[in-house]
Amino acid sequence: SFSLSLQKLGNPSKPISFSLNLTQNHVPKRLHTMISTSKSEPIHPNPPSQSMVYRVPGLHPDEIDNIAGQTFRRYTLSPASNVRRTGKGTCIVWFRNDLRVLDNEALFKAWASSESVLPVYCVDPRLFGATYYFGLPKTGALRAQFLVECLADLRKNLQKYDLDLLIRHGKPEEILPSLAESFGAHTIYAHKETCSEEVKVE
Predict the structure, then answer these.
(1) Is the pLDDT of residue 126 over 60?
(2) Which 3 state secondary structure label does DSSP give 11?
């Protein structure tokens, strides 16, 4: 995820270009299950080529569940997580393609570093344009319907934490600075994208 200092945004009333200071936090993509046994050996005689799981001596099944739970809750907001909020003011969480609430590092960091969080989704008109190569439509009817359903689900999940999703139509580089000025937000958190057209927006 990355944070964007709003002091560099300039005049929020006009479209702008901005540079980002990106930081990469390495979080395990897969937690391999480890089961107690007397020696290390594959669990399955013919495991999938990209998923090798080994038995590790001395690890009780209850410990496995505890490790998995701690890993999942590391970047998850919940009443039981007791997240210590040390920051001041307001932070914006810019939701892009990752519309999760659970295990969401950007949302977690925004919550921990502020007194209030404003979740935002920008319906970028470029999402409904044509691809750079071949000129194919980026979003058809089915994908648009799926997006609507995902946003409804995201809003429902955010409301469990007394947050509400603000949906705005327009380019994020125009919308976010204006919202930051209106709400007095000092930082915008978002997940860094990897695909070329999403990266261009950054």
Answers:
(1) yes
(2) coil
